[in-house]
Amino acid sequence: MNSWFLQRPGLIYETFPAKGKTEEDDMKQAGRSDIRPFEVMEAFREAELVAAAGQDVVHLSLGQPGQTAPRPVLDYLSTLINTAPLGYTDARGMMQLRERIAQFYHERYGLEIPVSRIFVTVGSSAAFVMTMLAAFDEGASIAIGRPCYPAYPNIMKACSLNPMFLDTDAAQNFQPSWEMLAPVKGGVKGMVIASPSNPAGTMMPEGDLETLATQCEAEGIRLISDEIYHGVTYGKEATSVLKYSDSAFVMNSFSKYFLLPGWRLGWAVVPQSLTRAFESLLQNFFISPPAISQYAALKVFDHLDALDKVVESYDANRDVLIKGLQEAGLTKLSTADGAFYIYADISDFSRDSKDFCRRMLHEAGVCAVPGNDFDESRGHDYVRFSFSGELADIERAVERLHHWLKQ
């Protein structure tokens, strides 16, 4: 948290010890833990302090659905609390849930994925950590398009791996390609992609996805596909990389399309040759995913129509936010084909997105996330706006931004 904010009177705040040596002893911090904080959560915390001081704040910050799980799912769970076994499950997840996920791949993508390759995990974050540990030795370089979800390169560093950034911009629709990877292919062991992406909400054309998947497999480069925002798309369907490669890892989450944020449940589809290693890691790191969350996930598959209606509401939010940002003067926006984010170029107003977001919060009462979180080199020119909340909040935010930017 910045010193300017800490000096504001009447606010309660936390302080953090300096990195390195502690006051108690002469022991040092492990190098693998020397990673950047997650700015999304930092921005959210600052906004909560501003709200606690009495200012009304509209959140366009968190990537969390504004809606809860369908009511029948919650009602069903209330009947299970006193009757269902809620202890440890198989480390791979309940068999009936893994079978339902396999069925979902058949229904949604026309793919036949063996249940043996499907692992239910403690959020998609656990799936990513286990993938890094199962697939790569210490020191390996992993390519990733930038801007990107910041936890991914941070997790790589914590796993003693080296993220190799492939810088993209609006000209590439903020998506990497085989043409970008090919010149450095000899120096990388893997590549992470996300379509739809966070923070830009853009999608990789299917032809590019096929080329990337087949070329990576031919070159011995392990492809990791973040498919967390599949299902949350506008006007086009997302394609799973599993259509083109059996050697790729896929991770997904019940937090976005499936409306179970905070239940800490995701899944991974793992290459057959690495299933035993993946399972052993899960057993030792996490024991098993939470039982009650697995029951919720199993039930939510019965209500896909309700989930699709929520996506329709995101589409309406998206239209309002795009129009509002453009009318306020922010005209250089990502295409936002999926997910619930718009990545906006704010360079006509500021070359310091952190300062821009700070002033927007305190002066306009709108919380969004500076692009530095997603791109250390060029993120100072960008802000990520989320439209996953209620339409009324999007409309209030747009009105405030229009007034603030036109001052």
Question: Care to describe what's here?
Answer:
By secondary structure, the protein is of the alpha/beta class. It has two domains: about 5-70 and about 305-405, Aspartate Aminotransferase, domain 2 (3-Layer(aba) Sandwich); about 70-305, 3-Layer(aba) Sandwich (Aspartate Aminotransferase, domain 2). The protein contains 13 helices and twelve strands. The chain has helices spanning about 5, 40-50, 70-80, 95-110, 125-135, 150-160, 180, 205-220, 275-285, 290-300, 305-330, 355-365, 390-405; strands at about 60, 120, 140-145, 160-165, 190-195, 220-225, 250-255, 265-270, 340-345, 365, 370, 380-385. It has a seven-stranded mixed β-sheet with strand order 2-8-7-6-5-3-4, with helices on both faces. Strands 9-12-11 form a three-stranded antiparallel β-sheet. The chain has a two-stranded parallel ribbon with strand order 1-10. β3 (about 140-145), α6 (about 150-160) and β4 form a beta-alpha-beta unit. The radius of gyration is 21 Å and the shape is globular. The two termini are about 25 Å apart.
